Amino acid sequence: MNGRHENPQTPIRSSSQRQKSGSVEMLETRLERLSLVCRALWSLLAEKTDLTEEQLINRMNQIDLQDGVADGRLKKQADNCPRCGRLISPRHASCMFCGSGKAVSTAFDLV
After folding, report:
1. How many Å apart are CA 100 and CA 10, to the nearest integer?
2. Is the pTM of this model over 0.90?
3. Percent of the chain, pLDDT > 70?
Protein backbone atom coordinates (compact mmCIF):
# COMPACT_ATOMS: atom_id res chain seq x y z
CA MET A 1 0.00 0.00 0.00
CA ASN A 2 1.11 3.59 -0.52
CA GLY A 3 0.86 4.66 3.13
CA ARG A 4 -1.85 7.23 2.50
CA HIS A 5 -4.70 4.87 3.27
CA GLU A 6 -3.75 1.94 5.47
CA ASN A 7 -7.36 0.80 5.78
CA PRO A 8 -8.96 -0.08 2.42
CA GLN A 9 -12.38 0.43 4.06
CA THR A 10 -11.66 4.16 4.65
CA PRO A 11 -13.44 6.18 1.95
CA ILE A 12 -11.47 8.77 0.06
CA ARG A 13 -13.23 12.15 0.24
CA SER A 14 -12.92 14.59 -2.60
CA SER A 15 -12.12 18.23 -1.98
CA SER A 16 -15.73 19.17 -2.82
CA GLN A 17 -16.98 16.68 -0.22
CA ARG A 18 -14.63 18.17 2.39
CA GLN A 19 -15.75 21.67 1.41
CA LYS A 20 -19.43 20.71 1.72
CA SER A 21 -18.76 19.08 5.07
CA GLY A 22 -17.07 22.28 6.26
CA SER A 23 -20.01 24.35 5.01
CA VAL A 24 -22.46 22.13 6.88
CA GLU A 25 -20.41 22.43 10.07
CA MET A 26 -20.30 26.23 9.67
CA LEU A 27 -24.09 26.35 9.21
CA GLU A 28 -24.64 24.10 12.24
CA THR A 29 -22.44 26.38 14.35
CA ARG A 30 -24.29 29.47 13.11
CA LEU A 31 -27.65 27.83 13.85
CA GLU A 32 -26.52 26.95 17.38
CA ARG A 33 -25.38 30.55 17.98
CA LEU A 34 -28.66 31.97 16.64
CA SER A 35 -30.59 29.56 18.83
CA LEU A 36 -28.57 30.70 21.85
CA VAL A 37 -29.26 34.37 21.02
CA CYS A 38 -32.98 33.66 20.64
CA ARG A 39 -33.12 31.86 23.99
CA ALA A 40 -31.22 34.68 25.70
CA LEU A 41 -33.52 37.31 24.19
CA TRP A 42 -36.62 35.37 25.20
CA SER A 43 -35.38 34.86 28.76
CA LEU A 44 -34.72 38.62 29.07
CA LEU A 45 -38.15 39.49 27.64
CA ALA A 46 -39.94 37.01 29.89
CA GLU A 47 -38.02 38.27 32.92
CA LYS A 48 -38.57 41.98 32.24
CA THR A 49 -42.16 41.87 30.93
CA ASP A 50 -45.41 40.01 31.47
CA LEU A 51 -45.04 38.01 28.25
CA THR A 52 -45.81 34.29 28.46
CA GLU A 53 -44.69 31.20 26.56
CA GLU A 54 -48.23 30.95 25.16
CA GLN A 55 -47.97 34.47 23.72
CA LEU A 56 -44.58 33.64 22.22
CA ILE A 57 -45.93 30.50 20.58
CA ASN A 58 -48.98 32.36 19.25
CA ARG A 59 -46.74 35.04 17.73
CA MET A 60 -44.49 32.38 16.21
CA ASN A 61 -47.54 30.83 14.57
CA GLN A 62 -48.68 34.21 13.23
CA ILE A 63 -45.26 34.95 11.76
CA ASP A 64 -45.01 31.42 10.36
CA LEU A 65 -48.17 32.07 8.34
CA GLN A 66 -46.77 35.28 6.79
CA ASP A 67 -45.34 33.26 3.91
CA GLY A 68 -48.68 31.49 3.44
CA VAL A 69 -47.61 28.09 4.81
CA ALA A 70 -47.81 26.83 8.41
CA ASP A 71 -44.61 24.77 8.30
CA GLY A 72 -42.52 26.10 11.19
CA ARG A 73 -40.34 28.13 8.81
CA LEU A 74 -40.40 31.60 7.32
CA LYS A 75 -39.34 31.40 3.71
CA LYS A 76 -37.87 34.57 2.28
CA GLN A 77 -39.79 35.85 -0.71
CA ALA A 78 -38.35 37.38 -3.88
CA ASP A 79 -38.37 41.19 -3.79
CA ASN A 80 -38.77 43.68 -6.59
CA CYS A 81 -35.67 45.68 -7.38
CA PRO A 82 -36.08 49.28 -6.22
CA ARG A 83 -34.36 50.54 -9.40
CA CYS A 84 -35.51 48.36 -12.33
CA GLY A 85 -38.50 46.54 -10.79
CA ARG A 86 -37.36 43.03 -11.69
CA LEU A 87 -37.45 40.24 -9.13
CA ILE A 88 -34.42 39.70 -6.90
CA SER A 89 -33.98 36.16 -5.63
CA PRO A 90 -33.94 35.76 -1.83
CA ARG A 91 -30.48 34.19 -2.26
CA HIS A 92 -28.99 37.34 -3.78
CA ALA A 93 -28.10 40.63 -2.11
CA SER A 94 -28.45 42.67 -5.30
CA CYS A 95 -30.27 42.71 -8.62
CA MET A 96 -28.54 40.63 -11.28
CA PHE A 97 -29.91 42.92 -14.00
CA CYS A 98 -28.97 46.41 -12.79
CA GLY A 99 -26.79 45.73 -9.71
CA SER A 100 -28.96 47.70 -7.29
CA GLY A 101 -29.08 46.41 -3.72
CA LYS A 102 -32.26 45.13 -2.12
CA ALA A 103 -34.41 47.62 -0.26
CA VAL A 104 -34.03 47.29 3.51
CA SER A 105 -37.13 47.94 5.57
CA THR A 106 -36.38 45.91 8.72
CA ALA A 107 -33.27 44.58 10.44
CA PHE A 108 -34.31 41.09 9.36
CA ASP A 109 -33.84 42.08 5.72
CA LEU A 110 -30.12 42.18 6.50
CA VAL A 111 -29.97 38.54 7.61
Report:
1. 48
2. no
3. 89
